Amino acid sequence: MNEKTKKILIDYGIFVGLFAVMLLVLSVVTIIANNVKTSGLRKETQYVLDSYAPEKYTVGQAVRLDSPLQTTVVCYDLIQNSTDSAHSLFAGKEYVVVVRVLTLFGPMPAVYIYNDVTGVTFTGFALLHNSQSEKIEQISMNSSVLYWACRIPSIMQRIKEL
Fold first, then answer.
1. CA distance 131 to 90
2. Which has the higher per-residue pLDDT, 159 or 36?
3. Can you state the angle between helices 131-140 and 144-161, rounded to 10 degrees?
4. CA distance to 114, 131, 155, per residue, from 70 (Å)
5. 71 secondary structure, DSSP code
6. What is the DSSP string of 6-55?
7. Quick one: CA dihedral 74, 77, 83, 84, positive or negative?
């Protein structure tokens, strides 16, 4: 090899090395950010569920969605704290589904409870815990909230197939 070829190979090696390091740093930051987002959203979802039915539900582990909607929809296992045996005999598996819903005030995380037997129930918006939340719910109830309530069963069918 001559000097020109060695210099080109060294430059190319440095470029590939820097690219690999940047890709590694970006991957680590993405994983950390996803974990922070998931845990923060879990806390907000628990707050909404406590407002909806105090001490009845606990948000469990995140459920993986194998869908392009995973940037818009987050799903968690839902654990019932009550030991009502009559209810548990007829109830199916429950999940809490958080969907980014467009409202007049911008995108808001809407919290739904999905049950195999009873279907979908809207419980409220995360991140807002005052009268503004009630106003947004009233304005959005006939449009985007109901749209996602109709879409959630088909999304949850994909989880059952996994």
1. 35
2. 36
3. 90
4. 17, 30, 10
5. G
6. HHHHHHHHHHHHHHHHHHHHHHHHHHHHHHHHHHHHHHHHHHHHHHHSTT
7. positive
- The Cα–Cα gap between 122 and 110 comes to 8
**Residue 50: burial class (beta carbons within 10 Å; 0-12, 13-18, 19+):** middle
pLDDT in tens, 52-83: 888 888 888 888 877 777 778 888 988 888 65
Please state the rounded mean pLDDT for residues 6-23.
95
Contact 113, 121 (CB under 8 A): yes
47 within 8 A of 68, measured Cβ to Cβ: no
What digits encode the pLDDT tens for the residues 100-124?
888 777 888 889 999 888 889 888 8
pLDDT value of residue 85:
47
118 by DSSP, 3-state: which? Answer: coil
The tokens of 116 are what?
Answer: 């195999």
Q: Which helix (H) or strand (E) holds 145?
A: helix 144-161
